[in-house]
Amino acid sequence: MSIHSCILPDEKVFADFRQQCLSSDNWVNKYDNSGMQVWVEVPAKKGKQGPKVHKIKCTMPITDVSAATMYDVLHDSKYRKEWDPAMLESFDIARLSANADVGYYSWQCPKPMTSRDVVSLRSWQVKDEEYVIVNFSVKHPKYPPGKKLVRAVSILTGYLIQATGPNSCKFTYLSQADPKGSLPKVVVNAATKMLAPKVMRSVHKAGQNYPAWKAQNVPNHKPWLHPEQNTLPMMDPAELAIQRADSLENVDVTSKEEDAQESEDST
Questions:
Q1: How many CB atoms lie within 10 A of CB 227?
Q2: Which among 135, 153, 122, 109 has a CA at the least distance from the CA of 245?
Q3: Which structural domain range is residue 78 located in?
Q4: Other C-beta atoms lying within 10 Å of the C-beta of residue 82
């Protein structure tokens, strides 16, 4: 097996991700309102303390936006600045293949938590009215963890969008991530019950507004559908390594907050 096939997702990764999105085994429903549902995975085996990984799944029926439009929204990095209130910075770094790239994203966390960032490899696939995007954390030689943000780790995160009609779809978001740092359980629970539905509603609204926005912003430029339009530099996937959660130090978030406060006080 080559290095390329090791790091770039293969057919099995997409199939496994899809299966997780559709499965209800070992998932507990934590929120159900107007068709939107939030699920949290309960590990099949109890006992030995595993890594602190939070696995969450959100599903939402969308009756007024096509699957193709929702797919475009998730890909369009320029549009993300218009609708993602938590985003601090986001940019694409390089392309790895016709359906894979590597990028950087940082986001604001509710106080007193330190904000997070992630460098991730993203890959996508379209088949029979189904759209899949998956991403996971990678180590990039030019983008190591910094001092001001906590580097989170995406083990496998992504979206499954299934067309249910010409202008409707079922939208699923699944995240398996280690946020790193010392997150109180109350914060994780709040994220599950309040933050996740809020983000889903933001994405839905972004889908409603996208066609009008895109009509004014290079309407034919969609490199995720037309690889020949992609102007990102090519990068050899062998230069990347999968970022394992246990290879990042568990940063004490509170000390980072105190450091940030001290620097603010001294200015």
A1: 11
A2: 153
A3: 3-42+52-244
A4: 13
**Structure tokens given for 136:** 């996971």
Separation CA 50–CA 72 (nearest Å)? 36
Q: Is residue 251 part of a domain?
A: no
Q: Please give the backbone phi and psi of residue 196, each rounded to the nearest 5 degrees, phi first.
A: -60, -50
Using CA atoms, how far apart are residues 121 and 101, in angstroms rounded to an integer? 6
Number of structural domains, the chain? 1
Residue 134 corresponds to which tokens in the numbers above?
């998956």
pLDDT in tens, 138-161: 999 999 999 899 898 889 999 999
Identity at 33, one-letter amino acid code:
N
Report the CATH number at residue 147: 3.30.530.20
Instruction: State both tokens at 71.
Output: 């797919």
Locate 109 and state its tokens. 């966390």
Tell me the pTM: 0.85
Question: What is Dmax (Cα atoms) for the chain?
Answer: 58
Convert the pLDDT of each residue in 208-266 to its tens digit. Answer: 999 999 999 999 999 999 999 999 999 999 999 988 777 665 544 444 444 444 444 44
CB 30 within 8 Å of CB 55: no
Phi and psi at 242, nearest 5°, equal: -65, 130
CA distance 153 to 137: 6
Count Cβ neighbours within 10 Å for each residue of 109-142 and write b for 16 or more, e otherwise. Answer: beeebbbbbbbbbbbbbbeeebbbbbbbbbbbee
- Positive or negative, the Cα torsion across 227, 229, 230, 234? positive
